């Protein structure tokens, strides 16, 4: 599974790189921080898990309104009892900007996987969609307010004795910067 993810990641980066040189379209970077507010879980005790998220990504604008890209981040979930779950999601993203100057409303969708690279990180699929509104700060910088839904699978191997696999649904609220 790790080999497939690495191959897909390499192919995506290669495609974006080729597109950048083949077409003189814009490449943008965004960075966000935010809260993950508990919505639902498949845990039997229906525990509330709230979280904190960071993301940074690169999006290639393939037209004046549409962008595709990838992102890397961290999501940190915590139970009221103190137990925590950390993920390192790597996602493929799609964005639709209502205005070609990247100001105003933006719709986004993403999906990917959180590999277990370190002992204190859990693995599992992640996906979501959202809406943001950006304000210009300077010629090359926008400030955006974001909301959306985030799904995360916390996947423990059958031999792992510390926890059971479960699903999380969270409402995400965040603030982000777009460098264009």
Helix/strand order: HEEEEEEEEE
Find the structural class using helix and strand composition.
mainly beta
Biggest sheet features: 8 strands, antiparallel, barrel
Output the strand order for the largest sheet: 1-2-3-5-6-7-8-9
Query: What is the residue-mean pLDDT, rounded to a whole number?
Result: 84
The gyration radius over C-alpha positions equals: 17 Å
Oligomeric form of this entry? single chain
Instruction: Enumerate how many helices there are, as a single number.
Output: 1
Helix content: 10-25%
The rounded distance between the terminal residues' Cα atoms is 34 Å
Q: Uncertain runs with pLDDT below 50, 5 residues or more? A: none
User: How much of the polypeptide forms β-strand, as a percent range?
Assistant: over 45%
Number of strands: 9
Mass-distribution shape: globular
Keywords:
single chain, 180 residues, mainly beta, eight-stranded antiparallel β-barrel, 1 helix, 12% helix, globular
Description:
- There is one protein chain.
- By secondary structure, the chain is mostly beta strands.
- 12% of the residues lie in helices and 59% in strands.
- The protein is built from one helix and nine strands; from the N terminus they run H-E-E-E-E-E-E-E-E-E.
- Strands 1-2-3-5-6-7-8-9 form an eight-stranded antiparallel β-barrel.
- A hairpin with a 5-residue loop joins strand 3 (66-78) and strand 4 (84-87).
- The longest helix is centred in the first third of the chain and has 21 residues, at 2-22.
- The radius of gyration is 17 Å and the shape is globular.
């Amino acid at each position: 599974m790790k080999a497939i993810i690495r191959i897909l990641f390499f192919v995506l980066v290669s495609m974006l790189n080729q597109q950048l040189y083949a077409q003189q379209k814009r490449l943008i970077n965004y960075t966000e921080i935010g809260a993950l507010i508990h919505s639902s879980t498949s845990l039997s005790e229906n525990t509330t898990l709230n979280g904190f998220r960071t993301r940074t990504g690169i999006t290639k604008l393939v037209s004046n309104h549409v962008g595709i890209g990838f992102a890397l981040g961290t999501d940190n979930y915590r139970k009221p009892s103190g137990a925590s779950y950390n993920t390192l999601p790597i996602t493929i993203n799609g964005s639709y900007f209502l205005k070609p100057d990247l100001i105003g409303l933006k719709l986004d969708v993403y999906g990917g996987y959180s590999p277990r690279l370190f002992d204190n990180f859990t693995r599992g699929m992640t996906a979501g969609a959202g809406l943001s509104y950006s304000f210009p700060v300077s010629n090359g910088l926008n400030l955006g307010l974001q909301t959306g839904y985030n799904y995360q699978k916390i996947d423990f191997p059958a031999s792992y004795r510390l926890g059971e696999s479960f699903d999380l649904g969270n409402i995400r609220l965040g603030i982000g910067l777009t460098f264009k």
